[in-house]
Amino acid sequence: xTFFVIAEGVISFLLVAGGVFAFTGSLGMLQFKDFFMRLHxxxxxxxxxxxxxxxxxxIYFTLTQRELHVQELLITLFLFITAPVTGHMLxxxxxxxxxxxxxxxxxxxxxxxxxxxxxxxxxxxxxxRHPWKSRKQKRPRLFR
Length: 144
Description:
Blueprint: H1 3-31, H2 35-38, H3 40-65, H4 71-96, H5 114-117
Pfam families: PhaG_MnhG_YufB (PF03334)
Region (Disordered): 110-144
Keywords: Membrane, Transmembrane, Transmembrane helix
């Protein structure tokens, strides 16, 4: 076996594995019941899938063009750093807004500390009022 046959096998494996991970991550987003379970699909499965595809792309273009391609490696690194952070921030926001969750899974509200959940529901910010909608002023007329 030559080096290129082995490299094609590794690239093929990474592409297939990336497709399977991305598909299961997307399918998990559709099948899971509540917001907190749906976070796992894109933050875990899809991140691994895209990471595998990007690493396969890096290997392929490095071998075919005979120069090192690190753009895909940088994109993969950035994706692996940002996806868990955004998933954590979304989960904390869901806890603070007291979103409904399925009680049949492990982990329930009594396990959380008060500072994790928040004392009360987060209120929405007040809407900005237009100047002509105040009680004393009327909307300016353009045509009389």
